[in-house]
Amino acid sequence: MAIFNKEEYMRDLEALVNIDSGSHDIDGLNKVADFICAKYESIGLTPVRTQQGESGRPYVEVFTHPEAEEVDVLFLGHLDTVFDKGTVAERPFTLSEDGKVAYGPGVGDMKAGDLMAFHLTRVLREECPDLKICVCHNSDEEIGSEDSEHAMQAVAAKSRYGFVLEPGRVGGHFVYQRKGVADIVISCKGIASHAGNAPKDGASAILAMADIIQKMHALTDFETGLTVNAGVVKGGSASNVVAAECEAVFDVRYTSFAQLAEFEAKLDAICAAPAVDRVSVSWKKAGQMPPMEPNENTETLMNLLRAEAEKLDIHPDFLSVGGASDGSLLSAMGCAVMDGCGPESDKYHSVDEFLLTDSIEQRFHLLLGAIKGLA
Ligand SMILES: [Zn+2]
């Protein structure tokens, strides 16, 4: 078995966790990027570092074969956390007495995964020198990856397999499928009128929206995985005025683009037939994340991971989940993606975030073995 330097890993993990790197902390993000880049430089690789967005967040790509047009294996990890500057001072990296549990801001989500990418790359380069690897680190994942999206997708477009090193679920489970998300804004325009003196002159946008919300929620189908939620509703001006306007924002989760198209046709029909006369209805998409859809290579990947897990006598499940991640962006480019590849962690985005340290080495060997099967 390849040697995994756990001592070095734990030392680096402590150092990385102890750098505040919230998505808006450019100084901290740069320090984390410096640290990561230095690791790759120490093994003779040349990270390509750019600045993104107005605030200049660091974005890092490391290629083992910079001249190659294709990438076999793409490792993805974000350097940002959801925690504000000053969090480290309050609760720095700590280990439980038996050393089995690590705590600290971003320890699982996902500094442990970021480091895992480095350790895998270092060993894979030696054991599979022809394997073309790229490591991508963005710094805006926790705020939607808007600035890094295009760069990541450009690499994904030429990559065969993508490994997203977001935390693995406790129990060692991976995520192979994620739903897509569409934010749908529906606007109703009615006619204002005095609710006491001239109620018949008005056309209530709120009443029309109430009907639309019922119809939209009725499109939820847990069997096929389509879910609709009216999360925000705004409308009207005063209780004695028939509402001239109402707007609602819906979160729609879907499993495939085909399902989304079907949903949009129903949405068109709902908006074309408001239940209140003289109310007009329109809808627009305010945002969208593609689904992470498995392709034929995903099956290969799962089989390799299963076979390798068998050898280690562990039994991870492969989960289909509703939440989106950057894995969805890779998948949309045709790359076979496995997500949740990092060490086992839970309670992320909270003060209770923890990482199970025994899973670090296990995850390393599991991924290493499976990836060698792709070489
Ligand atoms: Zn994350």
Written description of the protein model:
The chain has 2 domains: 6-178 and 291-372, Zn peptidases (Aminopeptidase, 3-Layer(aba) Sandwich), CATH 3.40.630; 180-289, Alpha-Beta Plaits (2-Layer Sandwich), CATH 3.30.70.360. By secondary structure, the chain is an alpha+beta fold. The chain has helices at residues 6-17, 26-41, 87-90, 107-127, 149-156, 205-217, 257-272, 296-311, 326-331, 358-372; strands at residues 48-52, 57-63, 71-78, 94-95, 101-103, 133-138, 159-164, 174-178, 180-189, 193-194, 227-235, 241-242, 245-254, 280-289, 318-321, 336-338, 345-346, 354-356. The strands form 5 sheets. The protein has a 6-stranded mixed beta sheet with strand order 1-2-6-3-7-16, with helices on both faces. A 4-stranded antiparallel beta sheet has the order 4-5-18-17. A hairpin with a 5-residue loop joins β4 (94-95) and β5. The longest helix is centred in the N-terminal third of the chain and has 21 residues, at 107-127. It is built from 10 helices and 18 strands. The protein binds zinc ion. Zinc ion (ZN) binds at residues 78, 109-110, 141, 166.
Properties at a glance:
elongated, 10 helices, 34% helix, alpha+beta, Aminopeptidase, 2 domains, binds zinc ion, Alpha-Beta Plaits, single chain, 375 residues, 4-stranded antiparallel sheet, 6-stranded mixed sheet
